[in-house]
Amino acid sequence: MLSFTLDTNCLIALERGWDTAPSIRALADAHRRGAVSVAAVFSSASENPRFGQGEASTIQGFLDLLARIDLADVVVLSALMIFDFSFWDTCLWGSDDDRAREAEVQGILFPSIAADYGMYCRSRGLDPSRTPIDKTWRNAKCDVQMMWAHLHHGRDVFVTSDDNFHKESKQPALIALGAGRILTPPDAATLTAS
């Protein structure tokens, strides 16, 4: 059975009714039929608040969001623990190998953004103890965490409309790490046609 991992943009597409929403709904319907396995990632709860009903600032808020967009029954994957970023009961501590894999993903997706928030702030002349988590760093870290979770949990297809994942300079490197396929929602939905 094929397994699909939805990135945060897929959740936003469902929330806002974007043109990719029908394809994502087709994946969810195939999941309900037992034809495929569809997953979201708990890291999406840490993404900047973009959802129509306000910030998913708690895990229950995130689970409510999944229910609101008709994804309450999908698998939700854990990603790595990051202090002041992750929700405690939904993440993995991770080994040195896990952290090294995360650094590889970060280097592929965002080579100019430091993986460590303290280093990121220092490179911009900011005090990390007095600075709320910067939007650019947070968005990059969420993308890295989603791909890391996809890899760690051995999923087959990463579903995203984010062009950064589809760049010729990045997609082959992610596939070489074990990402399987990286597809847009419409392309991913074609794999469920029966």
List keywords for this structure.
single chain; 194 residues; alpha/beta; two-stranded parallel ribbon; 46% helix
Structure description:
This protein is of the alpha/beta class and 194 residues long. The protein has one domain. Helices cover 46% and strands 11% of the residues. The chain has nine helices and seven strands; from the N terminus they run βααβαβββαααβααβα. The chain has helices at residues 8-16, 21-32, 59-68, 96-109, 117-123, 135-152, 163-166, 171-179, 185-190; strands at 3-6, 37-41, 75-77, 79-80, 91-92, 157-159, 181-183. The strands form two sheets. A five-stranded parallel β-sheet has the order 3-2-1-6-7, with helices on both faces. A two-stranded parallel sheet has the order 4-5. Helix 3 links the parallel strand 2 (37-41) and strand 3 (75-77). Mean pLDDT is 85; it is low at 48-56.
Strand and helix layout:
Elements: E1 3-6, H1 8-16, H2 21-32, E2 37-41, H3 59-68, E3 75-77, E4 79-80, E5 91-92, H4 96-109, H5 117-123, H6 135-152, E6 157-159, H7 163-166, H8 171-179, E7 181-183, H9 185-190
Parallel strand pairs: 1-2, 1-6, 2-3, 4-5, 6-7
Helix pairs in contact: 1-2, 4-6
